[in-house]
Specification:
The chain has 434 residues and is mostly helical. The chain has one domain: Growth Hormone, Chain: A, CATH 1.20.1250. It is 73% helix and 3% strand. The protein is built from 20 helices and 5 strands. It has a 3-stranded antiparallel sheet, with helices on one face. Strands 4-5 form a two-stranded antiparallel sheet.
């Protein structure tokens, strides 16, 4: 997989193209979590409507995470063969079809099939956006990660907070409308990608290739996988089970949904603030410790007093979710070039989501076996400890390129190299420093 390099233009048309790419990235970010966050607030209604058990409900909450893992690996090969804009536009349109399909599903297999399709846009966006940002905005990485992370938090907050209210508004089987309505936003996000222009490749330019398999020899890459997977496990247990937990404690469905939505709302300023701070090496470990403390306080509050000051516990969990914005920023900081950034992003998120998928599934299985949530709290506490340990190592300044010298081939050190994942138009960047 390779792409030729060309010299980046400095015309007004190029600047307008960058604005269009920025808008497309932000709109895509808005849709990355709507399909996931809309499930938790109406999980009980989905169980009743499909006639499934609590263990199967755990699979419903885990399925999106598994899709992120498996489908994400398709990102670089697809983007190397086709234009990124077309890949992401197609993924978002498939996402819209899947959202409508699972809303109309009358059985669990059809619901699962629709979920797989609905995750396409999120999975490809997860792995391609960090490389796109590194390519198009190499000096504004923190700003762009902040922008699309904030958009993702806004979309997730709306999905978490409004889904239960939409379901109640439509009455019987209202959960179907509440799940399907988000398809409209996916269609809107697909349109700018279709308008992003491409320039012809220059056949005479040097070509470079990324060997992602060599990342298995990188300690840093495995540390990134563990950090990403552990923080994602926290997020998807919160998204998938917090509302149901509060409902089982006696809270109404609408109130529980709003509180989970509050959790997502807190992530909006967190996702805006954390990336610009995380690019500063000396602030990375303090940020990690702060997020871990918020996780501990939030989960402890929910365990001891779930119906007392519940808003405080969900706010603390929302602050803890700053680890997501932090690890997204670190993906760009722990690789020297767009090629290695894309490779690290794909492996980290693909393998990390496989790890994260264990969390929501285990919560459902343990809830079905014990009738309670003790297993959920044991799981998240263990995950917090491991997150602190692995994250502490990731916060040490180093580069995956240095651990795997053969990661990028085809252009000597200091020569121009380009993104294997296929950003269009290709832009010349400088190779790793000696």
């Amino acid at each position: 997989m390779s792409r030729p390099a060309t010299t980046p233009p400095t015309t007004a048309g190029h600047r307008r193209g960058l604005v269009l790419v920025g808008v497309a990235i932000v709109l895509t970010g808005f849709n990355l979590r709507t399909a996931v966050n809309s499930v938790g607030p109406v999980l009980q209604e989905i169980e009743d409507g499909l006639g499934v058990s609590s263990a199967t409900a755990g699979l419903i909450t885990t399925l999106p995470v598994l899709c992120f893992a498996v489908l994400g690996f398709a990102g670089p090969p697809l983007a190397a063969r086709f234009r990124d804009g077309h890949v992401l536009a197609a993924a978002l349109l498939v996402m819209a079809v899947g959202l409508v399909g699972r809303a109309a599903a009358g059985s669990f297999p059809l619901f699962a099939l629709g979920t797989v399709a609905a995750m396409a846009g999120g999975a490809l966006g997860n792995v391609l956006l960090p490389g796109l940002i590194k390519r198009y905005f190499p000096t504004r990485t923190g700003l762009l990660v902040s922008a699309y992370g904030t958009a993702m938090a806004v979309g997730g907050a709306l999905a978490s907070g409004a889904t239960a209210a939409i379901a109640e508004r439509f009455g019987e089987d209202g959960w179907r409308w509440a799940l399907g309505i988000w398809a409209a936003f996916a269609v809107i996000a697909a349109l700018p990608w279709l308008a992003v222009p491409a320039r012809p490749d220059n056949p005479s330019s040097r070509r470079s290739t990324v060997r992602m398999r060599t990342l298995v020899h990188s300690r840093l890459a495995w540390s990134m996988v563990l950090m990403f997977g552990l923080q994602a496990m926290q997020a998807y247990v919160i998204i998938g089970w917090t509302a149901q937990y509060l409902r089982d404690q006696g809270m109404s469905a609408a109130t529980a949904g709003l509180l989970v939505g509050l959790n997502a709302v807190i992530a909006i300023p967190v996702n805006a603030v954390v990336p610009p701070l995380a690019v500063r090496q000396h602030l990375q470990r303090p940020l990690l410790v702060g997020c871990v403390c918020c996780y501990l306080a939030g989960w402890s509050g929910l365990a001891v007093a779930p119906l007392t000051a519940t808003w405080l516990w969900v706010v603390l969990l929302g602050l803890g979710l700053g680890t997501f914005a932090m690890v997204l920023t670190l993906l760009g900081l722990r690789a020297r070039t767009p090629e290695s950034t894309a490779a690290l992003s794909t492996v980290t998120q693909g393998c990390g989501y496989l790890l994260a998928g264990v969390g929501p599934l285990l919560v459902g299985v343990l809830r079905g076996a014990t009738g309670g949530y003790t297993g959920m709290f044991m799981l998240v506490y263990a995950g917090i400890v491991l997150l602190l340990i692995t994250g502490w190592g990731v916060c040490r300044a180093r580069y995956v390129d240095d651990e795997v010298p053969g990661l990028v081939v085809g252009a000597p050190t200091g020569e121009p190299t380009v993104e294997v994942a296929g950003t269009e138009p290709p832009v010349t960047v400088t190779g790793p420093e000696p």
